[in-house]
Amino acid sequence: MSIETINGHLYAGGADCTELAKEYGTPLYVMDEDVIRQACREFRTSMEECYGRGMVCYATKAFCCKEMCRIMAEEGMGIDAVSGGEIYTALSAGFPAERIVFTSNNKKDEEIAYAIDNGVGRITCDNIEELYRISDIACEKGKKVRVVLRLKPGVEAHTFEAVMTGKIDSKFGFAIETGEAMKAAEEVAKLPGIDLVGVHCHIGSQIHEIAPFEKAAEVMFDFIAALRDKGIKISDLSLGGGFGIKYTDADKPIPYGDYMKRVSAKARECCDRLGLDMPFMMIEPGRSVAAPAGVTLYTVGSRKTIPGIRTYIGVDGGMCDNPRYALYKSEYTALLANKADEPKDEIVTIAGRTCESGDLIGEGMALQHAEAGDILAVLATGAYNYSMASHYNRVPNAAVVMVKDGRSRTVVRRETFEDVARNDV
Length: 425
Ligand code: LLP
Description:
Layout: E1 3-6, E2 9-12, E3 15-16, H1 17-24, E4 28-32, H2 33-51, E5 54-59, H3 66-74, E6 78-81, H4 84-92, E7 100-103, H5 109-117, E8 122-125, H6 128-140, E9 145-152, E10 174-175, H7 180-190, E11 194-200, H8 211-229, E12 236-238, H9 256-274, E13 280-283, H10 287-290, E14 294-306, E15 310-315, H11 324-328, E16 334-336, E17 346-351, E18 360-367, E19 375-379, E20 399-404, E21 407-412, H12 417-420
Parallel strand pairs: 4-20, 5-6, 5-13, 6-7, 7-8, 8-9, 9-10, 9-11, 11-12, 12-13, 15-17
Antiparallel strand pairs: 1-2, 2-3, 4-14, 14-15, 14-19, 16-19, 17-18, 20-21
Helix pairs in contact: 2-9, 5-6, 8-9
The chain binds ligand LLP.
Ligand LLP is lined by residues 59, 61-62, 80, 103, 163, 165, 202, 205, 240-243, 284-288, 324, 384.
């Protein structure tokens, strides 16, 4: 987020956050378009310069709406979609189907059919039953589907448990070390309607190290060589997403280009050692594209000091628009947008509005002295906030505005009470 303070007010993407809160209401997700585009360019440039042939697929699960998909199309990105809903959003924004990869762990038949009907470029297959279903559906339609196998490389990356997906005890993908992955590859090579084009892994999220990516690449290349030895030739390798971002000063993110530089060197080394051609490379950054671009604005409604215990600052949002503290105790940096140059001389708990004690944005947070009517800004909320929003307590979902050069536009309208009850009979 390109944030700055002017006359005591927080600005994002050149727009005064206090004014945005007045104009659009709160809670409000604000996304800085330039920050999103800049991240895409860094990833794409490093892919081109360090590796060569490849595609950077934005993982839309981080933040998905039509405008985001339009931006991704303009930036020459691919999309890693996790559901029919995300594919639908991308397609209805005019995103080219062949640049979509459909990756999830339990696809519904309707979703597989929808992806095939619409010419989605690749489907990442998670399990053997899914493989048969993709084959059956493709055959029914007389189509050939480009399939990528999701593998568990068994690599541990340091991150919180709930988002660690590459190790062997994971619900995602085929395990390499048990032989499950090789069996699936041999099976798929025999199946009609399927063209096995690649292998995929994703080792976790919010990772601040390069070594686990190098290790995963090594394991994947060894597997590609083992496939080749069995006469199975594949052309694509996806190493997933997971690149860490800065939520608080404790996070030390690595420049995105550095991942690609080191992983490309590792890829070259592996290909030389194993006598392989360099595959078409895909990566799937989600958080790193969307999170730094976002700030969420809330209006402070109450202040409760419990002597000797803590001060609660009550805001008009919470776990409905950002469930990450409730789920993972994720830490954020917050400030008052209308008192941005005042010292943060209080330590507070920011409490959400739902009927749930655990509905907090954070505890032990440094903040300026907050009073009712102040505008609270929580930084780096562009990923896994809007996309994980819920209607708990029938709270309507917040609006999303995109800011650029000091101007703002709505990209997702605020929900109304009617929206909340829209499908009730
Ligand atoms: N590719 C695959 C197959 C994934 O499963 C994920 C994320 C990504 C790419 C993107 O990873 P990223 O670059 O965003 O780390 N809700 C959690 C994050 C879950 C991530 C799940 N998979 C959170 O709020 O932290």
